[in-house]
Amino acid sequence: MDLFTHVIFAYLLSFVIWGPGAPQYIAAGALAGGLPDADILLFPLTRWFPALHHRGIVHSVLGVTVIAVVGAFLVPFLPYFTHASTLLYFVAMEIGGLSHLALDGFTNYAVTPLAPFSQKMLRMDADTAVNVTTLGLTAVTMGVLIYEHGRVPFNVWTETAWILIAVYGGYLLLRGLARWRAGVLAKREGFSAVEATSSPWVWMLADEQDTPDHYRIRYRTLRLGQPGTGTERSMEVAKMSPSTGPVDSPQAALDRTYIAAVTQNRWLRMRYHFGEAIPNGNVFQVFWYVLGMGGARRAIGVHGEIDRTTGAMQLKSGFFRLPTPQQG
User: Fold this and answer.
1) Among 160-164, 196-200, 246-250, which stretch is predicted with the lowest mean pLDDT?
2) Which residues, 6 or more positions from 124, have their beta carbon under 8 angstroms from its beta carbon?
3) Is 300 in contact with 290 (CB distance < 8 Å)?
4) What are phi and psi of 298, to 5 degrees?
5) For a FRET experiment, which of 147, 150, 153, 223 has its CA 20 to 30 Å from that of 268?
């Protein structure tokens, strides 16, 4: 989830726990809900301390507990915070930090909550990490809360908070139920994984095999409530070291460019990906793209061309337009 959604969610969760009569603990929980993402500022240290990478040790129970312990003593000295129970400040910040882990694990990005004692990942694939829907909901929520501050009676602010809690809770429940249903259908059709999209009604079913010699992928788009939607696509490539010489087919173009493409773009190494090669004069146009990252016929990945005669390739990483289905 994005930083602002983490803060808003922790704020609303803290409101449920502490009630409107304890704004200092609500504020502490909201602050702690966003603090784990501050680990992105530690990237200069990751060369010497790899555990400090983004979604590393700070995104664990140990990490948020350390933040809560330190914060419990420091937040009373921040503006707008009152001097109150250190223990309750700790509890508020611990809950806020744990909500951050839960939301991240709810998405398609994994966290390791028990690190460094266990590297077992939490990843439910029930939502995308950055989602236009949640960003919009968060923006509206922040706008409403900022507008109401100091302008409306206390009971109106309270009622607004409960309405927002119901909206966020309903969204998460919808996402969770849709993920469960997509998982049932994926198992029925022999797919090993389910990937979320920005819509709770649209999911990607995938089955991947990645060996030292070959990469295989089959996938299709599933629209809940519309059985049989989405054409299944599959691909298999041999992992060939870059070489020269004639390239006589689209399959050979994919085989020859695969290692170069995944080396050039880290997203291809991290996510499900697919490739297409299209004849175009004396070259094959090649498209390697990440499944589920993009929209409107655009995607993240590597594209370019490989010469049919010499095998010389020119590839570029970026965000590009995909070939039309008729061409693919």
Assistant:
1) 196-200
2) 105, 106, 107, 176, 179
3) yes
4) -125, 150
5) 223
Residues 97, 30: Cα–Cα separation, whole Å: 9
- The model carries a pTM of 0.81
Q: Is 216 helix (H, G, I), strand (E, B) or coil?
A: strand
Banded pLDDT at 228 (limits 50, 70, 90): low
Judge whether residue 296 has pLDDT over 70.
no
What residue has token string 């939490």? 122
Reduced to 3 states, what is the DSSP secondary structure of residue 114? coil
Over its C-alpha atoms, the chain yields an Rg (Å, rounded) of 24
Cα dist from 55 to 105, 227, 323, whole Å? 10, 37, 34
What is the 8-class DSSP label of residue 111? B
Checking if the pLDDT of 191 tops 60, the result is yes
Q: Which residues contact 267 (CB under 8 A, 6 or more apart)?
A: 273, 290, 293, 300, 301
- Residue positions counted in the chain: 328
